[in-house]
From TrEMBL:
Cited PANTHER family: ARAC-FAMILY TRANSCRIPTIONAL REGULATOR (PTHR43130), DJ-1_PFPI DOMAIN-CONTAINING PROTEIN (PTHR43130:SF14)
Species for this entry: Pseudomonas brassicacearum
Gene Ontology annotations of biological process type: regulation of DNA-templated transcription
Residue span(s) of domain DJ-1/PfpI: 6-178
Transmembrane portions of the chain: none
CDD domains per the UniProt record, alphabetical: GATase1_PfpI_2
Protein name, entry field: Thiamine biosynthesis protein ThiJ
Length: 201
């Protein structure tokens, strides 16, 4: 049975923040098929927007969400990328949607400044989290109930996981592949991506 991985996209989203995890999970599915012969993908990966209208990522890349926050399939993992998140922080509908999904029964992961959106829901209160190095102090100031730490590529708090800036989302996604699949699959995926997987040791 496939695991549904939903990636939220919005205007001014950082391209690698969402494209990195997308590539990791879709590549992991290919590697799983090669290893097991199972034709059903291990991960069913799709994008979700506030609506299905196209969004314009940073630097102008147009992205057409597969689903909206109102009509997407059930999720096993929600990924919240970063970018310029000021407008998203002020969208009550979006923050409420993230809050409803960010439960102990589901993995919710943020990349870079996507941690601000997750923190806005209160789901990071009393937990450790990280974000882009440039935004660490702003996050500490805006969300004093969150233990914002620096120096790690990702922080795993069980049901909620956050990663540092941009490319760290790839490292975190490989960690999630290990959690949802196994270590061998994560390592094979990193090899296929020709990516030097940086772990938290």
């Amino acid at each position: 049975m496939s695991l549904n991985i939903g990636i939220y996209v919005f205007d001014e989203v950082e391209v690698l923040d969402f494209a990195g995890p997308y590539e990791v999970f879709t590549t992991a599915s290919r590697m799983h098929t090669r290893r097991s012969g199972d034709q059903a993908p291990l991960f069913n990966v799709f994008t979700i927007g506030q609506s299905t209208a196209s969004v314009k990522a940073r630097a102008g890349l147009k992205v057409h969400p597969d689903f909206s926050i109102h009509d997407h399939p059930s999720l096993d993992c929600l990924i919240i990328p970063g970018g310029v998140v000021i407008a998203e922080l002020n969208k009550a509908e979006v923050i409420d949607w993230i809050a409803r999904l960010a439960t102990p029964e589901r993995l919710t992961a943020s990349v870079c400044t996507g941690a601000f959106l997750l923190a806005k829901t209160g789901r990071l209160d009393g937990k450790q989290a990280t974000t882009h190095w440039e935004d660490i102090e702003d996050m500490r100031e805006m969300f004093p109930a969150v233990n914002v730490i620096s120096g790690l590529r990702w922080v795993d708090e069980g049901a909620v996981i956050s990663s540092a800036g941009i490319s760290a989302g790839i490292d975190m996604s490989l960690h999630l592949v290990e959690r949802l699949g196994d270590r061998e699959l994560a390592e094979r995926t990193a090899l296929q991506l020709d990516f030097d997987w940086t772990e938290n040791n």
